[in-house]
Amino acid sequence: MSVLVAILGLALLILIHEMGHFFTARGVGMRPRKFYIGFPPAAVKWRRNGIEYGLGVIPFGGYVKIPGMHRPAPSDLDVHFGPALYEEPRLLTDVERVKRLVAASAFDDARVALATLEQAIGSAKLSPKARRAADRGLSEVGDALGDDAYWRQRTWKRLAVIAAGPGTNLLFAVVLLAAVYMLGIPSDASRRVQDVIPQSPAAVAGLHAGDRIVGVNRVPAYNFIDVRDAIHNSKGRPLVISVVRHGRYVELPAVRPTKTNGVYTIGFHPAAVRYTHYSPQKAFALAAEDTWLVTKAMGTWIGHIANGSGRKDVSTPVGIVQQSSKAVQLGYREYLQVLAIISLSLALLNLLPLLPLDGGHMVFSIVEGIRGRAIQRSVYERVSAVGIALVLLLFFVGLSNDIGNIHGG
Fold first, then answer.
1. Residue 47 forms beta bridges with which residues?
2. Distance of CA 120 to the CA centre of its chain
3. Buried b (16+ CB within 10 A) or exposed e, 56-89
4. Alpha carbon distance 302, 338 (integer Å)
5. Are 84 and 124 contacting, i.e. CB atoms less than 8 angstroms apart?
6. Under 8 Å between Cβ of 304 and 310
7. How do residues 385-402 score in pLDDT, each as one tens digit?
8. Radius of gyration, CA atoms only, the chain
């Protein structure tokens, strides 16, 4: 069940990312063509105000189709209408007319010519495969020639639509973190010793009621879960318990845990966990501070990835789900914190200036705004190939790390 909750959480983050793109595109006058909960193909779909809504067969995440992401090129017609031309050579005249007009940037005339081509295709005898390709071509080229096509919009509109995806993830992360602060953060009492069992290893080591455990084997412990896991996973090996007693740091003599009911323990009871609750104003201030700290850490992480020293820190959805499911087992507060960090990470990674990531589209939109004209499709494709290669490299590195973690490597 915890794995399912973790998967659903990741799917939710992807869905709200796409919702950011969708609603912002509608707000600035770019009418999206499709919006799915889940990924296509559609299990159920319906149309409203010219937009196709649907529930995808792949029930995770979301999908939004914004018209005309790229300037149309004559080669697009070769790709889409090639099968139809093979079966009906008489369509060549109409296809070539549209290609010439697209090459000449006569887009209004190209739309008229495309309508003529659509009529010719409608009366042609085509195989189902060729007709599907031709219909898809009419839709794709028509969208790219439309007045609401993404590539034809002013730079600020394009930047707003693309930035809305990461921006929604960023906002969601801040709201989640603020919610956790309002729900309550465990105080130091979660590491404080309530009492010590007489003649237990803890008593022999000199652990006292009121001590606050801050480390095990000189590894910091930030909450009782850290302390408990370190003891349970010790396999009976000696442990050095570090405590704060009356304001002074004390290291107790090494103590060997004993096995009780199949679990290694040292013989003490923690104080009841108390939670500190914050007002909404203070909670959002603390959430914003946490967001900035994670953002700086992410920048450092990217630098380490670039020089190769951060390879072991790369993860994929496999590792994300694994860590999220562990957080689910700890409690809903911990899970919301992890979900917030993942949402923030998605936002920051999507802002990297690589195509096909959102950051890459933003960079190209700025360059095109400065140039005053669209960049050729071939340039997009070459830069995208490099970006996809880098993303795939990170994915496979992360996957190898996740597999190693699963097997204890």
1. 52
2. 44
3. beeebbbbbbbbbbbbbbbebbeebbebbbeebe
4. 20
5. yes
6. yes
7. 888 887 777 666 655 654
8. 29
Cα dihedral sign, 120-123-127-132: positive
The two counts, helices (H) then strands (E), for the chain are 13, 12
- Long-range pairs, 315-319, Cβ under 8 A, ≥24: 315/398, 315/401, 315/402, 316/395, 316/398, 316/399, 316/402, 317/10, 318/398, 318/399, 318/402, 318/403, 318/406, 319/398, 319/401, 319/402, 319/405
Query: What is the C-alpha to C-alpha distance for residues 350 and 339, in angstroms, rounded to an integer?
Result: 16
Neighbours of 266 (CB within 10 A): 25
Cα separation of 374 and 46, whole Å? Answer: 34
Between strands 193-196 and 268-270, the pairing is antiparallel
- The segments of the chain whose pLDDT lies below 70 read 1-3, 60, 186-190, 300-330, 394-409
Q: Which residue type is seen at 166? A: P
Task: Name the residue among 93, 76, 54 with its Cα closest to residue 144.
Answer: 76
All CATH 2.30.42.10 domain ranges of the chain, comma separated, are 186-276
Q: How many CB atoms are closer than 10 A to CB 287? A: 22
Q: What is the CATH number of domain 186-276?
A: 2.30.42.10
- Inter-residue contact 180 to 277 (CB < 8 Å): no
Residue type, 267: G
Amino acid at 302: I
> Residue 326 gets which letter from DSSP?
H
Beta bridge partners of 195: 269
Rounded-to-integer distance, Cα 246 and Cα 232, Å = 27
DSSP letters spanning 33-98: SEEEEEEEEEEEEEEETTEEEEEEEEEEEEEEE-S-SS---HHHHHHHHHHHHHH-GGGHHHHHHH
Q: Are 219 and 292 in contact (CB under 8 A)?
A: no
Q: What's the pLDDT tens digit per position in 43-91? A: 899 999 889 999 888 876 788 999 998 889 898 899 999 999 999 999 9
